[in-house]
Amino acid sequence: MIIGFCLLWMESKEENVALTIIQRDNTLSIDESLLMSLSHNKPKKSVTTTIVPKDYICTQGDLALIDWIKEIPCEPRVEVVLIDDAFVERKWMECLFQPDAYLGDEVIDCYINLIKAQEHLKCRSGGRVHIENAFQFNFLKRDGDVETKTDELYPSKDMAQISSAERRVLLYLDHDMVFIPINIREMHWYLAVINARNMEIQVLDSLGTSSGRNDLIDTIKGLQRQIDMVSQRKELKDHRWPDLRVASWPLKEIEMEYAKQTDSSSCGLFLLNYIEYWTGDELSDNFTQDDMSHFRKKLAAILLSSDINKRKGCPLYKYDKEVDAGCSSDVQILDSPTNPKKRKLPCVSEENEVLMEDGDGPITQADLERWFVHDWDKRTPIKIPTDECTNEFLLSGLSTKDMPVTKADLIDVLCDYIMTIQDDTTLE
């Protein structure tokens, strides 16, 4: 079974790589000149740049790029945008091609990363700016639930969570403004700005003041809880905030004048432009609902053609076939080889050819032959009861200062561990 598992993984990996290379070659041969010719003023390239209505409208080159991306089927695992730690799959781009669609957080995060890449937008007239991603709001809101104790959210043993909250608090305190996208039940986006200089929470909402702010209030309470927790662990000093009682700061609704939404689906587009233009006191550039109607499709071209999009012109196919979500198991048991007592390697290379590298150096075909064939056949298999198939068993094979193990030993432990797994979910 373990041989079948390894063969299946390696064959699938080789097919994926080949498909990616083919797609990359085809794309570059057709569209490289098109991609090189595209240029956009958004996000703002400098403080002196003024965004005008035509900057929201697609050029012929933009439309050609969009037509090309539409030719790619909306299959799972086809990644077309990767900007820093945010990515967009082909199927998620559809919200930019449908005029009444709600923008997903994947698209929101990718454009936010484009904004964050502009140095001049990191420091504005209102001070230093930190822009949160689209899902951080959920964690802050969770922490704002007064019925849940802090010890339950951040157990003393869970140092990873505590350290994460501490880093976030220190990051916020090192900035004058923190921009937090707020998502109300996946139906509406608006922007909350924690403005430390003014000691107020500013609300920029394309629908005006008609919406309730319970989500935002819980978010600020969650941040206050994190600040209090961190302040108990260490002294908070040398920061930029004049007052750490952020939950006591007033909410201030910002009148958006012309930058208001008149349809039912453009809130995410307004949110992105608020993030891009808000200085702490005003919007640096003007825009209207008409601009946002054009910007929806323009946003697709901006993301796809960005110089920092690592998938620019070469979508990554993570699987060569659509994943069958209805299948009860993705595990395939292959037939046993003719001689089940003898391991066979899935490919044959020159003995000294370097196949891969790890922290200990290069791994050659001869290394694999020795570990998986010769040494394996000489060892005595370890029989492990099903109830001992645990993480503790797996960790027991790791090298320690007092008990160093070889690379071959680690492979043996891993193989033994996999052989004990009985159910499809765990094996996957």
Automatic annotation (TrEMBL):
It comes from the Eukaryota. Pfam families: Peptidase_C48. InterPro entries: Papain-like_cys_pep_sf, Peptidase_C48_C. Keywords: Hydrolase, Protease, Thiol protease. Residues 86-278 form the Ubiquitin-like protease family profile domain. PROSITE patterns: ULP_PROTEASE (PS50600). GO terms for molecular function: cysteine-type peptidase activity. One of its GO terms (biological process) is proteolysis. Belongs to the peptidase C48 family. This is Ubiquitin-like protease family profile domain-containing protein. The lineage of its organism: Eukaryota, Viridiplantae, Streptophyta, Embryophyta, Tracheophyta.
